[in-house]
Amino acid sequence: MLYSFRVVFKILLAFIVLLVVYFLTALYFSLVTVNTNFTECKKDAVEIYLLSNGVHTDIVVPLKNDQKDWTQFVSPAATQSGSSFARFVAFGWGDKGFYLNTKTWADLKFKTAFNALFFLSSTAMHVSYYYQPKESATCRKVCISKESYEKLIVFIESSFLLDKNGLSQKISDAHYFTNDAFYEAKGTYSLFYTCNTWTNNALKSANLRACAWTPFDKGIFYQYDY
Fold first, then answer.
1. What is the dihedral sign for C-alpha 172, 176, 180, 185?
2. What pLDDT, on the 0 to 100 scale, is given for residue 223?
3. Pairs from 203-206 (Cβ < 8 Å, separation ≥ 24)
4. In a 10 Å sphere around its CB, with 0-12 CB exposed, 13-18 middle and 19+ buried, how is residue 167 labelled?
5. Using CA atoms, how far apart are residues 217 and 195, in angstroms rounded to an integer?
6. What CA–CA distance (Å, rounded) separates 188 from 62?
7. What angle do CA 36, 158, 25 make, to 5 degrees?
8. What residues does each domain of the chain span?
């Protein structure tokens, strides 16, 4: 009995130590900035937004401009409302099981969380449409060059799992509200590659200010707190 107690205690202690190391590592690398020479573009800029719900981040970009017409790739007509009002589209990569089975935190199940954290499930792209994002503490506008936006387009598109015809694959009857839809995505979600890591890597790919690594939204917003 005493031996069993010691084993359980050691396992719990090891888990706590690993958790502390994980959070301290995340904090450190969230504060390390890459692309430190980035400055917001003032001429011929493309306006994008970093949007957070307090946990998860989206990248919001123009629905149409001279560089990209996203309606040819993820049509707002595929939403319940048709989103004909939309001028911006938001992309948020994440765990498919978590996305589809956990509309609110009250819906979260242990199996869903376990699978999401330990490389055991597929991923999806959450696509939402907006008329005009409203700047706030959780919605940061960033003005970028056309060259950076071109790189961002490539990164976002490459995260979708396409069908044999090269088209995005909408997940049937999957949505939160009337202005959004879900699509099949590439990659695997884990403790080390979260939805926010995806957003951070998208920023890196476009030579925008970003963290060295972060699993959390706070690190991303810290980089633009100036």
1. negative
2. 96
3. 203/35, 203/59, 204/34, 204/35, 205/151, 205/152, 205/154, 205/155, 206/144, 206/148, 206/149, 206/151, 206/152, 206/155
4. exposed
5. 9
6. 27
7. 45
8. 32-223
Can you give the three-state secondary structure of 127-167, one letter per residue? EEEECCCCCECCEEEEEECHHHHHHHHHHHHHCECECCCCC
The pLDDT of residue 108 is 47
Alpha-carbon separation of residue 123 from 57, 79, 195 (angstroms): 15, 20, 10
Question: Cβ neighbours of residue 174 under 8 Å, at least 6 residues apart?
Answer: 99, 100, 124, 181, 182
pLDDT single digits (tens) 116-168: 555 557 899 999 999 999 999 999 999 999 999 999 999 999 999 999 999 99
Give the DSSP per-residue string, 15-79. HHHHHHHHHHHHHHHHHSEESTT-----SS-EEEEEEESSS-EEEEEESB-SS-BGGGTS-GGGS
Helix, strand and coil in the chain, % to nearest 5: 35, 25, 40
* Between 184 and 7, the higher pLDDT residue: 184
- Tell how far CA 167 is from the center of its chain: 21
Strands 88-95 and 57-62: antiparallel
Q: Which two tokens stand for residue 21?
A: 């190391």
**In whole angstroms, what is the distance from residue 144 CA to residue 142 CA?**
6
Nearest to 76 by CA among 65, 90, 92: 90
Contact assessment for residue 34 and residue 218, using Cβ atoms and an 8 Å cutoff: no
